[in-house]
Protein backbone atom coordinates (compact mmCIF):
# COMPACT_ATOMS: atom_id res chain seq x y z
CA UNK A 1 0.00 0.00 0.00
CA UNK A 2 1.27 3.47 -0.85
CA UNK A 3 1.87 5.77 2.08
CA UNK A 4 3.34 9.13 2.82
CA UNK A 5 5.54 8.90 5.90
CA UNK A 6 6.29 12.09 7.81
CA UNK A 7 8.59 12.36 10.80
CA UNK A 8 7.86 15.50 12.78
CA UNK A 9 10.22 18.08 14.17
CA UNK A 10 11.85 19.88 11.25
CA UNK A 11 11.50 23.61 10.58
CA UNK A 12 10.65 24.39 6.93
CA UNK A 13 12.86 26.85 5.09
CA UNK A 14 13.42 27.87 1.49
CA UNK A 15 11.31 28.53 -1.55
CA UNK A 16 8.55 26.53 -3.23
CA UNK A 17 6.72 27.15 -6.52
CA UNK A 18 2.95 26.93 -6.84
CA UNK A 19 1.30 25.14 -9.80
CA UNK A 20 -1.59 26.29 -11.97
CA UNK A 21 -4.92 25.99 -10.15
CA UNK A 22 -6.85 22.72 -10.36
CA UNK A 23 -10.15 24.52 -9.85
CA UNK A 24 -9.35 26.98 -12.64
CA UNK A 25 -7.99 24.58 -15.21
CA UNK A 26 -10.85 22.05 -15.06
CA UNK A 27 -13.60 24.50 -16.13
CA UNK A 28 -11.25 26.05 -18.71
CA UNK A 29 -10.65 22.63 -20.30
CA UNK A 30 -14.41 21.96 -20.23
CA UNK A 31 -14.99 25.34 -21.92
CA UNK A 32 -12.53 24.53 -24.70
CA UNK A 33 -15.15 22.29 -26.32
CA UNK A 34 -17.18 25.41 -27.12
CA UNK A 35 -14.74 26.23 -29.95
CA UNK A 36 -16.06 25.05 -33.29
CA UNK A 37 -13.01 26.48 -35.00
CA UNK A 38 -9.35 26.82 -34.07
CA UNK A 39 -7.40 25.12 -31.32
CA UNK A 40 -7.04 26.18 -27.71
CA UNK A 41 -3.65 26.27 -26.01
CA UNK A 42 -3.84 26.17 -22.22
CA UNK A 43 -0.67 26.94 -20.27
CA UNK A 44 0.49 26.21 -16.71
CA UNK A 45 -1.62 23.07 -16.49
CA UNK A 46 -0.72 21.03 -13.39
CA UNK A 47 -0.02 17.29 -13.83
CA UNK A 48 -2.85 16.23 -11.54
CA UNK A 49 -5.00 13.10 -11.62
CA UNK A 50 -8.09 15.32 -12.20
CA UNK A 51 -6.51 16.85 -15.30
CA UNK A 52 -5.92 13.38 -16.77
CA UNK A 53 -9.54 12.53 -15.95
CA UNK A 54 -10.98 15.54 -17.80
CA UNK A 55 -8.59 14.87 -20.69
CA UNK A 56 -10.11 11.38 -20.95
CA UNK A 57 -13.63 12.86 -20.83
CA UNK A 58 -12.80 15.13 -23.79
CA UNK A 59 -11.17 12.29 -25.72
CA UNK A 60 -14.37 10.27 -25.27
CA UNK A 61 -16.31 13.19 -26.74
CA UNK A 62 -14.12 12.99 -29.87
CA UNK A 63 -11.85 15.96 -29.14
CA UNK A 64 -8.20 15.94 -30.09
CA UNK A 65 -6.28 16.70 -26.90
CA UNK A 66 -2.59 16.54 -25.99
CA UNK A 67 -0.95 17.22 -22.63
CA UNK A 68 2.80 17.82 -22.55
CA UNK A 69 5.12 20.11 -20.59
CA UNK A 70 2.26 21.61 -18.58
CA UNK A 71 0.45 22.62 -21.76
CA UNK A 72 -2.84 21.26 -23.03
CA UNK A 73 -3.84 21.67 -26.65
CA UNK A 74 -7.48 21.02 -27.51
CA UNK A 75 -8.94 20.62 -30.96
CA UNK A 76 -12.73 20.41 -30.61
CA UNK A 77 -13.52 21.22 -34.24
CA UNK A 78 -14.78 17.72 -35.19
CA UNK A 79 -18.37 16.72 -34.47
CA UNK A 80 -18.63 16.14 -30.72
CA UNK A 81 -20.32 13.23 -29.03
CA UNK A 82 -22.65 14.30 -26.25
CA UNK A 83 -22.45 11.55 -23.66
CA UNK A 84 -20.20 11.16 -20.59
CA UNK A 85 -20.30 7.81 -18.80
CA UNK A 86 -20.42 7.19 -15.04
CA UNK A 87 -16.75 6.23 -14.83
CA UNK A 88 -15.53 9.77 -15.58
CA UNK A 89 -18.11 11.53 -13.42
CA UNK A 90 -17.53 9.12 -10.52
CA UNK A 91 -13.78 9.82 -10.52
CA UNK A 92 -14.27 13.57 -10.57
CA UNK A 93 -17.43 15.61 -10.07
CA UNK A 94 -16.06 18.49 -12.15
CA UNK A 95 -16.69 16.32 -15.24
CA UNK A 96 -20.26 17.63 -14.98
CA UNK A 97 -18.91 20.99 -16.19
CA UNK A 98 -19.14 19.73 -19.79
CA UNK A 99 -22.97 19.88 -19.54
CA UNK A 100 -23.20 23.65 -20.20
CA UNK A 101 -20.75 23.71 -23.14
CA UNK A 102 -22.34 20.63 -24.77
CA UNK A 103 -25.85 22.06 -24.48
CA UNK A 104 -24.67 25.34 -25.96
CA UNK A 105 -22.81 23.78 -28.85
CA UNK A 106 -24.73 20.58 -29.59
CA UNK A 107 -28.13 21.18 -27.98
CA UNK A 108 -27.86 17.85 -26.15
CA UNK A 109 -25.94 16.30 -23.30
CA UNK A 110 -26.30 13.01 -21.44
CA UNK A 111 -24.12 12.76 -18.38
CA UNK A 112 -24.09 10.25 -15.54
CA UNK A 113 -25.41 11.67 -12.26
CA UNK A 114 -22.39 12.77 -10.21
CA UNK A 115 -23.70 11.38 -6.87
CA UNK A 116 -22.43 12.30 -3.40
CA UNK A 117 -18.89 12.37 -2.09
CA UNK A 118 -17.02 12.36 1.20
CA UNK A 119 -17.56 16.05 1.93
CA UNK A 120 -21.31 16.21 1.31
CA UNK A 121 -24.19 15.32 -1.00
CA UNK A 122 -23.33 18.08 -3.50
CA UNK A 123 -26.58 18.45 -5.49
CA UNK A 124 -26.63 20.04 -8.98
CA UNK A 125 -30.09 21.60 -8.83
CA UNK A 126 -28.75 25.13 -9.39
CA UNK A 127 -26.95 24.07 -12.61
CA UNK A 128 -30.15 22.46 -13.88
CA UNK A 129 -32.33 25.42 -12.87
CA UNK A 130 -30.11 27.63 -15.04
CA UNK A 131 -30.27 25.32 -18.07
CA UNK A 132 -34.05 25.01 -17.76
CA UNK A 133 -34.43 28.79 -17.54
CA UNK A 134 -32.55 28.96 -20.85
CA UNK A 135 -35.07 26.63 -22.48
CA UNK A 136 -33.49 23.21 -21.97
CA UNK A 137 -35.65 20.20 -21.13
CA UNK A 138 -33.97 18.17 -18.42
CA UNK A 139 -34.78 14.58 -17.51
CA UNK A 140 -33.23 12.27 -14.99
CA UNK A 141 -33.38 8.47 -15.31
CA UNK A 142 -31.25 5.33 -15.25
CA UNK A 143 -28.51 7.17 -13.42
CA UNK A 144 -28.16 9.82 -16.13
CA UNK A 145 -29.14 13.44 -16.56
CA UNK A 146 -30.16 14.25 -20.07
CA UNK A 147 -30.80 17.75 -21.36
CA UNK A 148 -32.04 18.84 -24.79
CA UNK A 149 -32.78 22.12 -26.41
CA UNK A 150 -34.81 22.70 -29.52
CA UNK A 151 -32.63 25.05 -31.57
CA UNK A 152 -30.50 27.38 -29.48
CA UNK A 153 -30.51 28.15 -25.76
CA UNK A 154 -32.34 31.41 -24.99
CA UNK A 155 -31.01 34.11 -22.69
CA UNK A 156 -32.58 34.24 -19.23
CA UNK A 157 -32.38 36.01 -15.89
CA UNK A 158 -31.24 33.49 -13.31
CA UNK A 159 -30.90 33.98 -9.56
CA UNK A 160 -28.80 31.32 -7.81
CA UNK A 161 -30.07 30.25 -4.37
CA UNK A 162 -26.42 29.87 -3.30
CA UNK A 163 -23.33 31.28 -5.04
CA UNK A 164 -22.28 27.85 -6.33
CA UNK A 165 -18.94 27.84 -8.12
CA UNK A 166 -19.84 24.97 -10.46
CA UNK A 167 -23.34 26.30 -11.27
CA UNK A 168 -21.94 29.77 -12.04
CA UNK A 169 -19.35 28.24 -14.38
CA UNK A 170 -21.71 25.80 -16.11
CA UNK A 171 -24.44 28.41 -16.73
CA UNK A 172 -21.90 31.04 -17.80
CA UNK A 173 -20.45 28.63 -20.40
CA UNK A 174 -23.91 27.65 -21.66
CA UNK A 175 -24.92 31.31 -22.01
CA UNK A 176 -21.98 32.25 -24.25
CA UNK A 177 -23.78 30.82 -27.30
CA UNK A 178 -27.37 31.57 -26.23
CA UNK A 179 -29.66 34.00 -28.05
CA UNK A 180 -29.69 37.31 -26.16
CA UNK A 181 -28.14 38.52 -22.91
CA UNK A 182 -28.22 36.24 -19.88
CA UNK A 183 -27.99 37.76 -16.42
CA UNK A 184 -26.94 35.52 -13.52
CA UNK A 185 -27.36 36.94 -10.03
CA UNK A 186 -25.93 35.84 -6.68
CA UNK A 187 -23.06 34.18 -8.52
CA UNK A 188 -19.78 32.86 -7.10
CA UNK A 189 -16.97 35.45 -7.06
CA UNK A 190 -13.99 33.10 -6.77
CA UNK A 191 -10.81 34.00 -8.72
CA UNK A 192 -11.36 30.82 -10.76
CA UNK A 193 -14.61 32.32 -12.12
CA UNK A 194 -12.66 35.35 -13.36
CA UNK A 195 -10.05 33.06 -14.93
CA UNK A 196 -12.77 31.17 -16.82
CA UNK A 197 -14.46 34.42 -17.96
CA UNK A 198 -11.12 35.69 -19.29
CA UNK A 199 -10.63 32.53 -21.32
CA UNK A 200 -14.20 32.66 -22.68
CA UNK A 201 -13.69 36.30 -23.69
CA UNK A 202 -10.43 35.38 -25.42
CA UNK A 203 -12.50 32.86 -27.42
CA UNK A 204 -14.83 35.65 -28.53
CA UNK A 205 -17.47 35.49 -25.79
CA UNK A 206 -18.96 38.61 -24.20
CA UNK A 207 -18.89 37.98 -20.45
CA UNK A 208 -18.98 40.94 -18.08
CA UNK A 209 -18.99 41.19 -14.29
CA UNK A 210 -17.04 38.04 -13.36
CA UNK A 211 -15.71 38.52 -9.83
CA UNK A 212 -18.82 40.51 -8.80
CA UNK A 213 -22.22 39.22 -7.67
CA UNK A 214 -23.84 39.59 -11.11
CA UNK A 215 -22.56 38.27 -14.43
CA UNK A 216 -23.95 39.36 -17.82
CA UNK A 217 -23.31 37.23 -20.87
CA UNK A 218 -24.27 38.49 -24.31
CA UNK A 219 -24.60 35.44 -26.50
CA UNK A 220 -22.47 35.28 -29.67
CA UNK A 221 -22.82 33.12 -32.81
CA UNK A 222 -19.66 31.08 -32.30
CA UNK A 223 -16.45 30.81 -30.34
CA UNK A 224 -12.97 30.04 -31.59
CA UNK A 225 -10.02 28.39 -29.82
CA UNK A 226 -7.75 30.71 -27.81
CA UNK A 227 -4.53 30.70 -25.81
CA UNK A 228 -4.89 31.05 -22.05
CA UNK A 229 -2.72 30.73 -18.95
CA UNK A 230 -4.44 29.55 -15.80
CA UNK A 231 -4.03 31.34 -12.46
CA UNK A 232 -1.85 30.01 -9.64
CA UNK A 233 -3.41 27.58 -7.21
CA UNK A 234 -4.41 29.61 -4.15
CA UNK A 235 -5.26 26.46 -2.19
CA UNK A 236 -1.90 24.83 -2.88
CA UNK A 237 -0.28 28.15 -1.89
CA UNK A 238 -2.37 28.24 1.29
CA UNK A 239 -1.36 24.67 2.11
CA UNK A 240 2.34 25.64 2.01
CA UNK A 241 1.57 28.74 4.06
CA UNK A 242 0.06 26.53 6.76
CA UNK A 243 2.99 24.08 6.58
CA UNK A 244 5.51 26.90 6.96
CA UNK A 245 3.59 28.51 9.83
CA UNK A 246 3.09 25.34 11.87
CA UNK A 247 6.81 24.53 11.86
CA UNK A 248 7.81 28.09 12.82
CA UNK A 249 9.51 28.14 9.44
CA UNK A 250 10.46 30.77 6.87
CA UNK A 251 9.20 29.93 3.39
CA UNK A 252 8.76 31.92 0.18
CA UNK A 253 5.77 30.69 -1.82
CA UNK A 254 6.50 31.65 -5.39
CA UNK A 255 3.49 32.48 -7.52
CA UNK A 256 1.06 32.93 -4.61
CA UNK A 257 -1.27 35.86 -5.37
CA UNK A 258 -2.05 37.91 -2.23
CA UNK A 259 -5.36 39.24 -3.63
CA UNK A 260 -6.62 35.66 -3.94
CA UNK A 261 -5.53 34.79 -0.41
CA UNK A 262 -6.91 37.73 1.64
CA UNK A 263 -9.10 35.69 4.04
CA UNK A 264 -6.27 33.27 4.78
CA UNK A 265 -3.65 36.00 5.17
CA UNK A 266 -5.95 37.85 7.61
CA UNK A 267 -6.49 34.76 9.78
CA UNK A 268 -2.82 33.80 9.76
CA UNK A 269 -1.83 37.30 10.81
CA UNK A 270 -4.35 37.09 13.66
CA UNK A 271 -2.56 33.91 14.70
CA UNK A 272 0.74 35.74 14.89
CA UNK A 273 2.21 34.58 11.57
CA UNK A 274 4.30 37.15 9.68
CA UNK A 275 3.23 37.50 6.05
CA UNK A 276 5.31 39.51 3.63
CA UNK A 277 3.53 40.14 0.34
CA UNK A 278 5.77 40.44 -2.69
CA UNK A 279 5.05 40.91 -6.37
CA UNK A 280 5.94 37.33 -7.28
CA UNK A 281 4.80 35.53 -4.15
CA UNK A 282 4.36 35.51 -0.39
CA UNK A 283 6.92 34.97 2.37
CA UNK A 284 5.58 33.28 5.49
CA UNK A 285 7.42 33.31 8.81
CA UNK A 286 5.92 31.21 11.59
CA UNK A 287 5.92 32.55 15.17
CA UNK A 288 7.23 30.73 18.22
CA UNK A 289 3.70 30.42 19.51
CA UNK A 290 0.48 30.44 17.45
CA UNK A 291 -2.62 32.23 18.78
CA UNK A 292 -6.11 30.64 18.52
CA UNK A 293 -8.67 32.12 16.09
CA UNK A 294 -12.25 31.37 15.06
CA UNK A 295 -12.93 30.50 11.44
CA UNK A 296 -16.13 30.29 9.43
CA UNK A 297 -15.98 28.99 5.87
CA UNK A 298 -17.93 31.05 3.34
CA UNK A 299 -18.07 31.58 -0.42
CA UNK A 300 -15.29 33.89 -1.70
CA UNK A 301 -14.17 36.39 -0.45
CA UNK A 302 -14.96 34.52 2.78
CA UNK A 303 -12.65 31.91 4.25
CA UNK A 304 -12.32 29.02 1.72
CA UNK A 305 -13.70 25.62 2.72
CA UNK A 306 -10.79 24.09 0.78
CA UNK A 307 -8.42 25.49 3.46
CA UNK A 308 -10.52 24.48 6.47
CA UNK A 309 -8.77 21.22 7.32
CA UNK A 310 -5.22 22.57 6.80
CA UNK A 311 -6.11 25.49 9.09
CA UNK A 312 -7.46 23.06 11.68
CA UNK A 313 -4.05 21.37 11.75
CA UNK A 314 -2.51 24.75 12.52
CA UNK A 315 -5.08 25.46 15.25
CA UNK A 316 -4.16 22.19 16.97
CA UNK A 317 -0.81 23.83 17.74
CA UNK A 318 -2.24 27.22 18.81
CA UNK A 319 -2.22 28.19 22.46
CA UNK A 320 -5.92 28.12 23.36
CA UNK A 321 -9.31 27.13 21.98
CA UNK A 322 -10.57 27.93 18.46
CA UNK A 323 -13.94 27.34 16.80
CA UNK A 324 -14.08 26.25 13.16
CA UNK A 325 -17.50 26.51 11.52
CA UNK A 326 -18.10 24.87 8.15
CA UNK A 327 -21.02 26.45 6.28
CA UNK A 328 -20.29 25.39 2.68
CA UNK A 329 -20.35 21.57 2.84
CA UNK A 330 -22.48 19.68 5.36
CA UNK A 331 -19.98 16.88 5.95
CA UNK A 332 -16.50 18.36 5.77
CA UNK A 333 -15.23 17.29 9.18
CA UNK A 334 -14.17 13.75 8.27
CA UNK A 335 -10.56 14.66 9.07
CA UNK A 336 -11.46 15.33 12.73
CA UNK A 337 -11.52 11.60 13.50
CA UNK A 338 -8.07 11.25 11.88
CA UNK A 339 -6.68 14.20 13.88
CA UNK A 340 -7.99 12.48 17.02
CA UNK A 341 -5.83 9.47 16.17
CA UNK A 342 -2.92 11.90 16.37
CA UNK A 343 -4.04 13.00 19.85
CA UNK A 344 -5.88 16.06 18.52
CA UNK A 345 -8.43 17.42 20.98
CA UNK A 346 -11.45 18.36 18.85
CA UNK A 347 -15.16 18.20 19.62
CA UNK A 348 -17.84 18.55 16.95
CA UNK A 349 -20.99 20.48 17.80
CA UNK A 350 -23.31 20.67 14.80
CA UNK A 351 -21.53 22.59 12.05
CA UNK A 352 -18.71 23.70 14.36
CA UNK A 353 -15.57 22.01 15.61
CA UNK A 354 -14.12 23.13 18.92
CA UNK A 355 -10.36 22.78 18.65
CA UNK A 356 -8.38 22.73 21.88
CA UNK A 357 -4.90 23.69 20.80
CA UNK A 358 -1.44 23.18 22.15
CA UNK A 359 -1.96 19.43 22.33
CA UNK A 360 0.96 17.13 22.00
CA UNK A 361 0.38 15.75 18.51
CA UNK A 362 1.53 12.17 18.07
CA UNK A 363 2.37 10.31 14.88
CA UNK A 364 -0.19 7.67 13.84
CA UNK A 365 -1.51 5.78 10.82
CA UNK A 366 -4.20 8.04 9.32
CA UNK A 367 -6.29 8.16 6.15
CA UNK A 368 -6.81 11.08 3.77
CA UNK A 369 -10.60 11.39 3.63
CA UNK A 370 -10.43 13.98 0.86
CA UNK A 371 -7.59 15.81 -0.89
CA UNK A 372 -7.37 18.72 1.54
CA UNK A 373 -7.76 16.45 4.57
CA UNK A 374 -4.76 14.49 3.26
CA UNK A 375 -2.68 17.65 3.09
CA UNK A 376 -3.87 18.66 6.57
CA UNK A 377 -2.74 15.35 8.09
CA UNK A 378 0.68 15.80 6.52
CA UNK A 379 0.87 19.32 7.98
CA UNK A 380 0.01 17.96 11.43
CA UNK A 381 2.61 15.22 10.90
CA UNK A 382 5.30 17.88 10.37
CA UNK A 383 5.08 18.78 14.07
CA UNK A 384 3.87 15.48 15.56
CA UNK A 385 6.05 13.41 17.80
CA UNK A 386 7.28 10.34 15.90
CA UNK A 387 6.07 8.99 12.62
CA UNK A 388 2.79 9.75 10.80
CA UNK A 389 1.74 7.44 7.97
CA UNK A 390 -0.91 8.80 5.62
CA UNK A 391 -2.84 6.39 3.37
CA UNK A 392 -5.53 6.84 0.66
CA UNK A 393 -3.13 8.93 -1.38
CA UNK A 394 -5.32 8.95 -4.51
CA UNK A 395 -7.22 11.83 -2.90
CA UNK A 396 -4.01 13.86 -2.50
CA UNK A 397 -2.98 13.16 -6.11
CA UNK A 398 -6.23 14.76 -7.33
CA UNK A 399 -5.08 18.15 -6.09
CA UNK A 400 -1.34 18.27 -5.38
CA UNK A 401 1.63 17.82 -7.70
CA UNK A 402 4.70 16.34 -5.96
CA UNK A 403 3.58 17.41 -2.49
CA UNK A 404 6.05 15.07 -0.83
CA UNK A 405 9.00 16.26 -2.91
CA UNK A 406 8.13 19.92 -2.45
CA UNK A 407 7.92 19.59 1.34
CA UNK A 408 11.14 17.54 1.40
CA UNK A 409 12.88 20.30 -0.57
CA UNK A 410 11.91 22.69 2.24
CA UNK A 411 13.54 20.40 4.78
CA UNK A 412 10.66 18.18 5.89
CA UNK A 413 11.45 14.59 6.79
CA UNK A 414 8.92 13.03 4.43
CA UNK A 415 8.83 10.25 1.87
CA UNK A 416 6.32 8.42 -0.28
CA UNK A 417 6.74 4.67 -0.21
CA UNK A 418 5.03 1.42 -0.98
CA UNK A 419 4.72 -0.62 2.19
CA UNK A 420 3.48 -4.18 2.10
CA UNK A 421 1.11 -5.19 4.88
CA UNK A 422 3.07 -7.01 7.58
CA UNK A 423 1.61 -10.43 8.52
CA UNK A 424 0.11 -10.34 12.02
CA UNK A 425 2.74 -12.66 13.57
CA UNK A 426 5.71 -10.68 12.24
CA UNK A 427 4.03 -7.42 13.10
CA UNK A 428 4.50 -8.08 16.80
CA UNK A 429 8.27 -8.34 16.26
CA UNK A 430 8.60 -5.12 14.25
CA UNK A 431 8.83 -1.94 16.31
CA UNK A 432 6.23 0.70 15.22
CA UNK A 433 8.88 3.29 14.45
CA UNK A 434 10.53 1.10 11.78
CA UNK A 435 8.14 0.50 8.89
CA UNK A 436 8.69 -2.37 6.49
CA UNK A 437 9.46 -0.19 3.48
CA UNK A 438 9.82 -2.32 0.41
CA UNK A 439 10.43 0.28 -2.22
CA UNK A 440 10.04 3.93 -2.96
CA UNK A 441 7.48 4.62 -5.68
CA UNK A 442 9.61 5.58 -8.72
CA UNK A 443 6.99 8.09 -9.90
CA UNK A 444 7.49 10.09 -6.79
CA UNK A 445 11.17 9.44 -6.06
C1 LIG B 1 -13.63 21.81 -9.16
C2 LIG B 1 -13.96 22.90 -8.22
O1 LIG B 1 -13.90 24.07 -8.57
N1 LIG B 1 -14.27 22.55 -6.98
C3 LIG B 1 -14.56 23.57 -5.99
C4 LIG B 1 -16.00 24.03 -6.16
O2 LIG B 1 -16.83 22.88 -6.06
P1 LIG B 1 -18.36 22.98 -6.49
O3 LIG B 1 -18.47 23.83 -7.69
O4 LIG B 1 -18.88 21.60 -6.56
O5 LIG B 1 -18.96 23.72 -5.22
P2 LIG B 1 -20.25 24.61 -5.14
O6 LIG B 1 -19.85 26.02 -4.93
O7 LIG B 1 -21.14 24.30 -6.29
O8 LIG B 1 -20.93 24.04 -3.83
C5 LIG B 1 -21.08 24.81 -2.67
C6 LIG B 1 -22.32 24.38 -1.94
O9 LIG B 1 -23.47 24.59 -2.76
C7 LIG B 1 -24.26 23.42 -2.83
N2 LIG B 1 -24.87 23.32 -4.17
C8 LIG B 1 -24.09 23.45 -5.28
C9 LIG B 1 -24.65 23.36 -6.54
C10 LIG B 1 -26.03 23.13 -6.65
O10 LIG B 1 -26.58 23.03 -7.75
N3 LIG B 1 -26.76 23.01 -5.52
C11 LIG B 1 -26.22 23.10 -4.26
O11 LIG B 1 -26.92 22.97 -3.27
C12 LIG B 1 -23.23 22.30 -2.59
O12 LIG B 1 -23.86 21.13 -2.14
C13 LIG B 1 -22.34 22.92 -1.54
O13 LIG B 1 -22.92 22.75 -0.27
O14 LIG B 1 -16.30 24.99 -5.16
C14 LIG B 1 -16.21 24.49 -3.82
C15 LIG B 1 -16.67 25.57 -2.88
O15 LIG B 1 -15.78 26.62 -2.87
C16 LIG B 1 -14.79 24.01 -3.54
O16 LIG B 1 -14.77 23.38 -2.29
C17 LIG B 1 -14.33 23.02 -4.59
O17 LIG B 1 -12.96 22.78 -4.45
C1 LIG C 1 -13.35 19.76 -2.87
C2 LIG C 1 -12.39 20.01 -3.77
O1 LIG C 1 -12.43 19.68 -5.07
P1 LIG C 1 -13.61 19.00 -5.92
O2 LIG C 1 -14.72 19.96 -6.03
O3 LIG C 1 -12.96 18.77 -7.24
O4 LIG C 1 -14.00 17.73 -5.21
C3 LIG C 1 -11.12 20.70 -3.39
O5 LIG C 1 -10.39 21.08 -4.33
O6 LIG C 1 -10.84 20.85 -2.19
Automatic annotation (TrEMBL):
Pathway: Cell wall biogenesis; peptidoglycan biosynthesis. This is UDP-N-acetylglucosamine 1-carboxyvinyltransferase. It holds the Pfam family EPSP_synthase. Phosphoenolpyruvate binds at residues 22-23. Its EC number is 2.5.1.7. Transmembrane segments: none annotated. InterPro entries: Enolpyruvate_Tfrase_dom, Enolpyruvate_Tfrase_sf, MurA_subfamily, RNA3'P_cycl/enolpyr_Trfase_a/b, UDP_GlcNAc_COvinyl_MurA. CDD domains: UdpNAET (cd01555). The gene is murA. It catalyses: phosphoenolpyruvate + UDP-N-acetyl-alpha-D-glucosamine = UDP-N-acetyl-3-O-(1-carboxyvinyl)-alpha-D-glucosamine + phosphate. GO terms for cellular component: cytoplasm. Gene3D superfamilies: Enolpyruvate transferase domain. Belongs to the EPSP synthase family. MurA subfamily. One of its GO terms (molecular function) is UDP-N-acetylglucosamine 1-carboxyvinyltransferase activity. Residues 6-407 form the Enolpyruvate transferase domain. It is found in: Cytoplasm. UDP-N-acetyl-alpha-D-glucosamine binds at residues 93, 122-126, 306, 328. Keywords: Cell cycle, Cell division, Cell shape, Cell wall biogenesis/degradation, Cytoplasm, Peptidoglycan synthesis, Pyruvate, Transferase. Its main location: cytoplasm. The active site is at 117 (proton donor).
